[in-house]
Every structure is written in structure tokens, then in C-alpha cells.
Amino acid sequence: MPLLVVGSIAIDSIESPHGSCPEILGGSATHFSLTAALFTRVKLVGVVGEDFPEDYLRVLRSRDICLDGLQILPGRSFRWSGRYEGSMAQAETLSVELNLFGTFEPTLPEHYRDTPFVFLANGSPHVQRKVLEHVRDEPFVLLDTMNLWIETERRALVELLGRVDALVINDEEIREFTREANLMRAGRAVQAMGPHTVVIKKGEHGALLLHEDEVFAAPAVPLAEVRDPTGAGDTFAGGFMGTLARVGHKRPDLEDLKLAVSVGTVCASFNVEDFGPNRIRHLEPAELLERYERYLRMLQVSGAPLLNASLLPVSEHTV
Amino acid sequence: MPLLVVGSIAIDSIESPHGSCPEILGGSATHFSLTAALFTRVKLVGVVGEDFPEDYLRVLRSRDICLDGLQILPGRSFRWSGRYEGSMAQAETLSVELNLFGTFEPTLPEHYRDTPFVFLANGSPHVQRKVLEHVRDEPFVLLDTMNLWIETERRALVELLGRVDALVINDEEIREFTREANLMRAGRAVQAMGPHTVVIKKGEHGALLLHEDEVFAAPAVPLAEVRDPTGAGDTFAGGFMGTLARVGHKRPDLEDLKLAVSVGTVCASFNVEDFGPNRIRHLEPAELLERYERYLRMLQVSGAPLLNASLLPVSEHTV
After folding, report:
1. How far is B18 from chain A (nearest CA, A)?
2. Number of domains in chain A
3. What is the CATH number of the domain that holds B276?
4. Parent domain of A108
5. A150: distance to nearest CA of chain B, Å?
6. pTM
7. Is A38 in contact with B312 (Cβ distance < 8 A)?
8. Taking CB atoms and an 8 Å limit, are B296 and A304 in contact across chains?
9. Closest Cβ opposite residue A246 in set B226, B293, B306
10. 3-state secondary structure of B83
11. pLDDT tens for residues B10-53?
């Protein structure tokens, strides 16, 4: 089933211990779309300026991403520059220019309005709510956010949470949002605001899924080299939502969601191997499938019968 | 097969957001033994003073732990006090008194000397080496350590690494030891010093196992309440080594080690539910088995056929 995404389409400049990459294609909707398009048809809503390179639009078109909802306006595109050091767990933002994204009013082409899966990528709650108001037929909606909106638009965010099926958020953000250090309790606190599903991204430590009363923890794919984590969270979301849309259950169950988290985890592991979307834009389905199968084999543990309770040699005395 | 452990047997005083617990049974060898004894016969090497409560010895005996290698000497036992706050990921040490453990010279009863599995729990590399010198028949040896020894006894530690099969260490410690931020690379750097197996403990994020060229990542059991993480690492090691000893392969393969990491992970999840060893000392094999089976079910992901490569709708154009 098709998938709608609204979010930023940006020009990024990135420094990491592995080099620097000025003026590269970036943005939450970009990273998400390039990944989700491996699984299903993606319809993009966003804005760029006249400075946006035609080559970058071609990258999006090369994955058959529908750009009918993309506005190209006079002015400058969203720009972000950041730097990673040490364990590269967090970017240091060097500069942000919202430019046209700061005043963006999304409009949905008619054929976007009944898309059954919707991702509200990181952006202002105002833009996210506008898109929600224009979709029909109760799609499955996944919301993302970041510390900026938690700090400046808390009320709008809480209101949005009452209207979505799921939230994807990173560990530090959900701790800040809920003021709860324990991630399980933080996730439960968000569920109490509305979403039946919460996915907590933990970077190199993988992801934690809460769905109704159930929980699933997925480790990240262990990697010896991380060149640039920019967009890893959106790539994860792209694999997650791409999988759900492909499965096609608008009310996904725990098994659907576990599959989606696992696929998202593997997609994110490719993203960090090169700068920006350079790895994902050239990713072949066969490579993804091969690493996914390796990941499932890694998770597989055998030998449980050895632990048969009756064999445990615990003493009969108790204290 | 039986298991030998040398390490600290302590009196701990612990404060956490869930309360405080003065003068509780503690120590690396204690937490390890109480867990490993659920799986196999444990022979303890250690020292306590005349101040050590007889009740605490009874706790160890209640799990049929062999105390023939325990010295009870005039003087005071090892004492540690610490406090946890916030996410409780790390203890703040309030005081340490090594007391008799600071001058401990381990001696092995004759019937300990050909134990096939040996755990050198956290303690000085001097004590650890002494025990290694007295065992026969090439046991499987697992080494633990901490930042104190990394900083003050680096050379002795590196020498020990050349003589053991495996190292268990936490993430911050291995980063400090290898000066490598990426955990996979840090693990590979330790393997280059000797051990074919490295287990990196990541607290609430689970564990990472490197064995020869293979890797396994295990998430922690998600928990909504952590009362006291003291001894979680040694409890993990107890489940890990207890499992290996029970399987009985002195040269464990990847499947044995994955099983051991998974069991250790589940054991650690019990430890943190109550202060000190209060949860583990009363743990029933059936409870452990039930949670272990639930953990394996959590890790199980189905639905992979949906991702069949030929179905992915990637465009035929490339950029």
C-alpha cells in the first residue's frame, strides 16, 4: 500500500572523523523516502528553494518517489550543518537555516488524501497537524519529533499524540519529554497520551518497541565502522513504515511491528556506512535481504532444552 | 561440570531512588556464585574477616556452594558503599575499604585444582594470576576486570589476557582500556591480545559477544523497575559461566556462547529487581526458565518471506 511522508528536504554539510561532506542531500523526508521506496510507493510532501540541485531531485525520482506534493519556491532550501566526534552518538549542530521550511504550509494533491500509511517526519507540530487534517479514511499514522519541539511546542505535540497511532522518538528525547529515566516507563507514559505503539530509537544500542502491553527489544546490527549517522533515525523509520505499508495492515499487530522494527534496524545499519544518503540511494534489495537474513540468524539462540528446570541442581535447603 | 571462582566477598551498603540497604551481602564472587550455582557445582575462593555474618555464609551454603577455598581471617571484610541516581546506569562509589581483600593471597584446596571452568572475578590481576598458576588441565578461563586495574595495573592485565580464553568487561571500561570508541573495534583489539571471546556488558542495553570472527548482540530484558543494579554484571557472568559449565564444552562454539549470553542476560534481569542478592538468592529455577522462554519468544521475528527481493518495487533507472 502507498505511503505519504511530510518532512524536511535539506542541504546538509557534515563533518565526522571519517571526513567532511559539504552540501549533500539531506532532510528527514529524504532519508525516510529513499528507504521506504524500497518497499512501496512513496508520496512526498515538502518544500525546497530554487537553490535546490536538480541532481538531488533526480535521486528522489530514481526511486520512483512521487514529487507531486513537493513545492519548489523562490528562496533558499533548509540547510543544516553538523559534526560528529568520539563515539559519534550525537551530532553537534554547527548551524541551522530553516529558510523556506520555516514558513512551510503543506498542501496535499487530491490523489495523496487517502494514502493508508502516513509518516509525519520531524518538523513543526503545526505542519504535522495540517497534513493530518487533510488525509481521509483513518490511515495508520506514525509521528516523529525532536527536542526543539518538545521544548517549544509541548502542548501542540501532546495534542498531536492524541491523534496518531504511533510515535518514533530517540531515547534522550523521550526521557526529556516524559521526565522519566526508565525507558519502559517513559514509553508507557507516552502510550497513556494516545498512541498504542511507541518506538524508542537508541542509536548503536538498537530500538525498543512498546505495543499495547507488549514489548520488543532489537539490538542494532553491530558495525565496526560508522562514517556518518546523519539520517539513521529517518532511515530506520523508512524501513519500519515501508514494511508496515508492504504488509498492509492498517492496524498492525505485534508480529507486524516486530518485523518492521527489525527491517528498520537493518536499513539504518546501511545508512551509517557512508555520508548522507550515499549508501541507501545505491542499496540493492538483494543486499538488504542478505543482511536482514544474517541479522535474524544472529538473533537466533538454540540450546534452550539444556536449561530444563528439573535438571537445575539447586539445593533443597532454603535459608 | 564444576566451576571455580575467585573474587570479592563483601559487605555492601547501597542507596538507590528505591531506598537504602546497609550492610547487605555483596562482592563479585558472591553475586556470581549465587547465580552460577543454579546451573552447576561452584567452588569459591576468597577471604572474609571475623566480622562477616554467619547468616551470609549460610546464604552461600544454601546454594551448595563449596566454601573449602574460603579463608576466614582475623580482621575486617571488604566493604563497599555506593549510590545510584537518575537512570541508575552507574554507581557513585561513596567508600571502599579493601581490608583483608587488599592483601589476599589465594590458596586452592587440592580438589579445586582441576576444575574445568574458571572465573577470575573482578579483583587484582595479582590474585587472578595466582589462581591461574594453581589450576591444571587447561580449564576454560573467563576474566573480569574494572577501571581501577586498567588504570593502575595495565601491564599485568595485558599479560593475563594472553593466558585466558575470554574477557567480560563493560562498555566504558573496554573503551578506556583500548582507547577505541567503537565497541566492535574495541572488542577486536582485545581479541588481538589473546582471548578468542570478548563479552561487552552494556547494562540496560544488553551485551555484545565477539567470538573469533563472529558477533552476537543480545538486548537486555526490558524492565519498568530497576531497584538496585549492584552485582548485575557478576550475575550476568554467573549465568554465562554456569551455562557454559553445564553444556560442558571446554572449547565452546558460537552457539554455546550465544546460549550463555542469553541466559546471563535473563539472570541479570532478576538481580536488579531487588537490593543486593535478595532476588537471586530466592530465585526458583522455574521462574528463570519461564522468563528465559519469554525472552526467546520476544527475540523471535517472523514474516521474513514478505521481503522477498524480487518483490521490492525499486525503479529500474539508476542515477
Report:
1. 13
2. 1
3. 3.40.1190.20
4. 3-298
5. 20
6. 0.94
7. yes
8. yes
9. B306
10. strand
11. 999 999 999 999 999 999 999 999 999 999 999 999 999 999 99
